[in-house]
Specification:
Strand content: 15-25%
Number of helices: 19
Strand order of the largest sheet: 4-3-2-5-6-8-1-9-16-15-14-10-11-12-17
Distance between the termini: 48 Å
Shape: globular
Amino acid sequence: MPSNIDHALSLAWAASLFIAHLLVALRALTRPNRTPASRLAWIAVIMLVPIVGMFGYFLLGETSIGHARIARLRKTEANMGRPPDVDFRPQAADPKAASLFDLAHSINGFHVTDGNRITLLGDPDAPVTEPRRNSLAAIDTLVGDIEQARESVHIAVYIWLEDDVGCRLASAVATAARRGVQCRVMVDSLGSRAFVDSPTWKQMQAAGVRLHSTLNDISRLRHMAFSRVDLRDHRKIVVIDNRISYCGSQNFASPDFRVKPRFAPWIDLLTRCEGPIARQTQYLFLSGWIPEDGEEDLEHLPARLPIERFEPGCVAQVFETGPTSKGNSMSDMFVACMYAARKELVITTPYFVPDESILRALCAAPRRGVKTTIIFPARNDSWLVDAACHSTYLDLLQSGVSVQEFPLGLLHTKSMTIDGEIALVGSANIDRRSLELNYENNLLIADRQTVAAIRQRQADYLAVCQPVALDAAKAWPFHRRLGQNIVGMMSPVL
């Protein structure tokens, strides 16, 4: 009799496990906004590594930020409407740029605007061998604007460290709050976890700064079956007095980045924007802040104040993507920009784990006669990303893409210039996290003078880069290529 019971229990366990695997596999197959490669990778993990695969899917397979949070977000978006930028739309635009602006419009509903003034920050006298000076000069400008704020300072940032730069910025924000400026700060609960527990955070709160650590509930047990535990708010947004905004890759940390000093300095790009574009950026901040903090009386702010228009002005548009955006929005924008290039395409990104459409668009560019260059840091702080990135080198090099490695630190700049006429900058990397998981904000610019400044910064990087030769990549030992390709193959589930 006991053996029959044991046999029945074993059968029940096997049947339960089979049904569980089947249900999880069906969920992986039917989840919307997932690429075929991602579906295939998850099915392989779930079926080939049975129990571990199921738990892996529970932890990393879904991208929902929670039904309650989504409902609050949609309510805020409905009540705020979009910034009324009708008076600032350009009379005529380059058709190549116009199609990209139309695509950006489909993401957030913003229209392209002119009359903007966009400045690439940094130290014009900094030698190529001292890249950290540009980051520190950009921070000086930002601190100066915060010190001059009269009405509001709004900040959303992924990493805020309690180092010399982080404390200096915190002091400027706290001082502004003490003199009556409405200061609101939203940091990512993972990227800034040490800062949230620091004395500086408490000092800012005591000074009257409204603070919020966002997505801090994603890792809780009740969310695990429906969301990844590592969804993040990766945006870098500053809006001052509803008229000045900042966009780029700069976190609130020293270029020495003391949590990972052996990869330092971190080299970033930051733009200062004035004009109608600042109002769009204000909307992005508030559409994330209000659902988290509940300050519904702020919904009118993006349209409340008159906007200064600059002549001659810069044509630009901001957009934001994330787990609640239309599927593949950031990937679609990267691909569209790559196919828009006719003469030259230059890209910098620290993390390169492309989906199939991006890799194919990039490899097709040289075959269309486009001089294509991509710059990576020579040393990456993530060995997984480094391996996945290197797995693409042969494809890139054999297609005619010039692959360059920057040796003077971790090149954290995310930039793309197209024919010297269009630029895309912001917080998004060309990796799976930025494409599918993180909240990201980018700025699309069509202005020769501004784009020329960004292109010159890229040229400064290239001046010290080391090119990767096709023969050298072909000579990599078998075990190295095997490891890289295994990691690259599994990148859809990373």
